[in-house]
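Notebook entry, structure prediction.
Reason for the run: the old model in the group folder had no record of what sequence produced it. Starting over properly, with the input documented here first.
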Amino acid sequence: MRNWKVKTVTSSRPQSPVLFARLLSFFLLAVFLFVALSSHVLAPASAASAAKKLKPRDPYALIFGTVWGPDNRPVYGVPVKIRRLPDKKPKWELTSDHAGEFAQRVPAGKADYIVWADLKGVKTTDGQQLHVAQEVDVHVEYDERVDIGLHLTR
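New structure, fully documented this time:
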């Protein structure tokens, strides 16, 4: 009987393509399982945390309006002020957008508001001073939307 000696041989040949294909398929399967399981495991946890973050909002009414210029076109950048009827100072100050519109949430329930445009320093392109035709009275009953228009004159 002959004794065989073990020899270590190093070759520059790449690994077998079959072995590489098996390792690649195993890796892809592991990634697929991770993604599939993580979406089922993490989704309920994230949904539960999102439900905790969402608080029921208090009911509100919405005062929505448009500022109209003397030429009956919407006016951009006009400061609008809103106050409750018994108050003397405005509680909300906002500006009309590019469509001349503004919107303000107010508490739901019976209340009266006065809405006007603050035109100090606002002039037309030809230098004429603008004025508000009249302040607008708004009456709110419930959680509703009230649409108004502010008309400016020269």
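Summary: The chain has one helix and eight strands.
The old model has been moved to the deprecated folder.
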